[in-house]
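Ligand: manganese (II) ion. Inputs:
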Amino acid sequence: MMTVRQIVNKTKENNPNDDTELLELACEFARKAHGSQKRRTGEPYIQHSYHTAYVLAQIKADLSTIIAGVLHDVPEDTEYTLEDIKKNFGEEIAGLVEGITKLSKIKYRGEERYRESLRKMFLAMVHDLRVILIKFSDRLHNLRTLDALPPEKRIRIAKETMEIYAPIAELLGIWRLKWQMEDICFKYLHPEEYKQMQYEYEVEKKTERNQYIQQVKNVLGQKLKDAGINYKIEGRFKHLYSIYKKMQRKDRKFDEIYDVFALRVIVPTVSDCYKAMGIIHSIWRPKPERIRDYIAVPKPNGYRSLHTTVFGPENKATEFQIRTMEMHEESLYGIAAHWYYKQKYNSDPKFFKEPAWVKEILEIQKEAKDTNEFLNKVKFDVFQNRIFVFSPRGDVFDLPEDATPVDFAYLVHTEIGNKATGALVNNKMTSLDHPLKKGDTVEIITEKNRKGPSRNWLKFVKTNRAREKIRQHTKSQRLDQIKRIFPSKFS
Ligand code: MN
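Predicted complex:
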């Protein structure tokens, strides 16, 4: 049973100064509104509202979002309206609840509905990302109580979660929710594999794993202490579904998935991160191809950490993530940490940069003619694999895989795109349709007198941005031509 006290305490843990009186009022209001309604599990309905709010507090959502979480099913399922919520709890909270109510109107049935719901999710997301956080928390509690539903319904909800919710959670960097949702769905979609892996991971290998991790901790802890670095080392629980996916992808058995031994090292500063990585490499030999510096070059969703895999004790491959506390919280809560840090540090923008794709989705929405076009573009421009390339000055740009110098040019500046005539990729002259690779350094050669982009570029550009800029330019050029031929019509 979830209690109001638990929600309030969790909220205060994040922000001791939060005035939780309104939260308590909301709990009371929702409890009365839902009255004697029951969930399929037989529990009082209000338990669902409370659990949703609690998950929000766990991912460090802000107070308004937690309150909206408590109220999220009120307009839909009780006699109280959105107006009542606005009167009692104000515009901001009512706005969030309204967002959720709108989202819940669409149900997932077959391909068309799937596309439509995905579109709605994206739109709600760019409108106010917090709506999606509530939707996720709502969904997570529904998943946890899935047993109460008939089998077909369980499968449908699990599939929908895998196809829509998990990818969006990943995009937003809310790994904690993504993993939890995936592991529950995995259980329903592949019950045999789930049971088998759960047994191997949680029963058979558990003692061995714990002993091993303790051994690594002891050795590394001593060295970090000698170097005067404050640290926290924790063994990482690997999520069953992510192991399963890796096994499928690489066609390997459970034993062969090497990063089953995984540890996380949390240290105070960025320079400590690099020092700690150096210390790890001085104890155990690293696998060079597995060293990743996501601090210098963060992932598109803002994820930062150092990663390395070493041959640890007994030559067992052991994976490390090294990061500061702030990076750690960002990695668990992703975009949710945004509001947390905004409150905590009074919206100092250096703590959070809105990911570039939020703007991208909005742009696509403005231009797309219909849902299909919208989704294809979002999938292509936002969801597919991204690569990082560099300007000669070392600035980092993130682009979809196989993007071309033209895409890069338009990302830097519209005029650079419009005036591009060629490109130097890693100091070698290349054509403008040359597919770029991860880590390339790209320099665009421009010509001042160039009139504008070529329509042929549309055949190879990969980003929506470049496509639109080229179209815009050729359109306005044609208009200029017409003006020249029929000047009287435009005077
Ligand atoms: Mn709900």
